[in-house]
Amino acid sequence: MNLFSRSSTLRRTAAPTAPVAPTAPTAAVVPDPALAALTGEWMIDPAHSRIGFSVRHAMVTTVRGSFAEYESRLYFDGRNPARSRAQIALATASVDTGVEQRDAHLVGRDFLDATRHPRITFTSTAVQMASKEVFRMTGDLTIRGVARPVTLDLTYIGYVTDPFGYERVGFDGTTTINRSDWGLTYNARLAEGGAMVSERLRLQFDIAAIRATG
Which residue of 94, 103, 124, 140 has the smallest Cβ count within 10 Å? Predict the structure, then answer.
């Protein structure tokens, strides 16, 4: 029985209720004034960053991988985070899960098809503060020529100047996607009826960025 059906024959006269006070609007998150010093162009340091993924395999284990080669253009506005933006291009063929045979399968036509689609890209479209330390970034993720929106929560880790004089800033972020939304539908079935590779794919961004010079 559908308790919310308009065709229900049960009716009850509503008792008078007191007027409800209007709900106060949610206060906007105000950026920490110290973040203003970080405003400017940045680039991801591949030697100290990881852009990767994890996926359940055979229903009982997790396979983890990453991309060894990528380019990035980042702009962070500490005064007005909504003006921040990011562009990242991964070399599809640089995927590395630690097993050569598996990597060869991933870059083939069953999955990423690196020959016809040599790059995986992410281009931000909007940024907002979710909390004092979390920036919510929405953007278009393109895999195998298919672009779909994703939302990524990036946690601000901190800022330092290293012994060599480079300014560094750190962010960690994750999001989960359904790979079939990008046409990654290849799979094999297990004898027990489950899938060899989960449809759900977790993307992981462990980012150390260096302030761009010149």
Answer: 140
